[in-house]
Write a structure and sequence with these properties.
Layout: E1 2-6, H1 13-24, E2 28-30, H2 31-40, H3 44-55, H4 61-72, E3 81-84, H5 90-101, E4 109-114, H6 117-125, E5 127-129, E6 136-138, H7 165-179, H8 181-188, E7 192-196, H9 201-215
Parallel strand pairs: 1-3, 1-4, 2-3, 4-7
Antiparallel strand pairs: 5-6
Helix pairs in contact: 1-9, 2-3, 4-5, 6-7
Bound molecules: adenosine-5'-diphosphate (2 copies) and zinc ion (ZN).
Zinc ion binds next to loops.
Region (LID): 126-163
Protein name: Adenylate kinase
Keywords: ATP-binding, Cytoplasm, Kinase, Metal-binding, Nucleotide biosynthesis, Nucleotide-binding, Transferase, Zinc
Length: 216
């Protein structure tokens, strides 16, 4: 299965991506995680991306598309993958389509996790993430079993620098202007599946699993 996950910041893409990638044994590719790893390692890519991410802006398409192409060319993507946070612009979606077409492949389904903007701020400001494995928690809705520690790897969870009220507002604007048009893009190709992201994490996962099961 070649799956992409769409939705506003805080919709639950990372949370669902982890569950789906475990259930279907496909790699979870998060462009946000790739950028954050490069930022913490101070690579040239990280240095370039940091300024955009801290402001809540998108990293330019040219940089982002190349990273994803390199990642998708790896062997573990042969039988499928789950892209979390890519594409975020129509240009990225077209580049992905071209890249897959070279191998006679297409995206099997674009899952849009739909959450109205009034839910987003609470989700984002309460989010805590594991800098080591990328797991996402919420202080109220999905707290770690041991306070402050990642369930999977025991590391201290942290608050992302771009999860402040101010930056979140900018990210929602960026989403509405640059990423929301992708819903129509995938709808026109009959690849779009919309799931109500205001349900519990378990219910969202159940809906997504049923949809994937019906496409396999
Ligand atoms: P969230 O999960 O909150 O939606 P991500 O972790 O996916 O956020 O992304 C964090 C930031 O990384 C984005 O605000 C953006 O600056 C950058 N980023 C991630 N993916 C992309 C992409 N496909 N195109 C451009 N910028 C991206
Ligand atoms: P995204 O990757 O789309 O930005 P995350 O998966 O990181 O979103 O989720 C954002 C925040 O909301 C996290 O704190 C997460 O624990 C929480 N969350 C995710 N899904 C739900 C849900 N269905 N109900 C309540 N909180 C959720
Ligand atoms: Zn962890």
């Amino acid at each position: 299965m070649r799956i992409i996950l769409l939705g506003p910041p805080g919709a639950g893409k990372g949370t669902q991506a982890k569950l789906v990638s475990e259930k279907y044994s496909i790699p979870h590719i998060s462009t946000g995680d790739i950028f954050r790893k490069n930022i913490s390692e101070k690579t040239p890519l990280g240095v370039k991306a940091k300024g955009y991410i801290d402001k809540g802006l998108l990293v330019p398409d040219e940089l982002t598309i190349d990273i994803v192409k390199d990642r998708l060319a790896k062997d573990d993507c042969i039988s499928g993958f789950l892209l979390d946070g890519f594409p975020r612009t129509v240009k990225q979606a077209e580049a992905l389509e071209d890249f897959l077409r070279n191998d006679n492949q297409t995206v099997d389904t674009a899952l849009l996790i739909d959450v109205p903007s009034e839910f987003i701020l609470e989700r984002m400001t309460g989010r805590r993430v594991c800098p080591s494995c990328g797991a996402s928690y919420h202080m109220k809705f999905n707290p770690p079993k041991i306070e402050g520690k990642c369930d999977d790897c025991g590391n201290d969870v942290i608050q992302r620098k771009d999860d402040t009220e101010e930056t979140v507002k900018d990210r929602i604007d960026v989403y509405e202007k640059q990423t929301q048009p992708l819903a129509d893009y995938y709808k026109a190709k009959d690849q779009l599946f919309v799931v109500d992201g205001t349900q519990s994490i378990g219910d969202v996962f159940k809906t997504i699993s049923e949809h994937i099961g019906s496409r396999k």
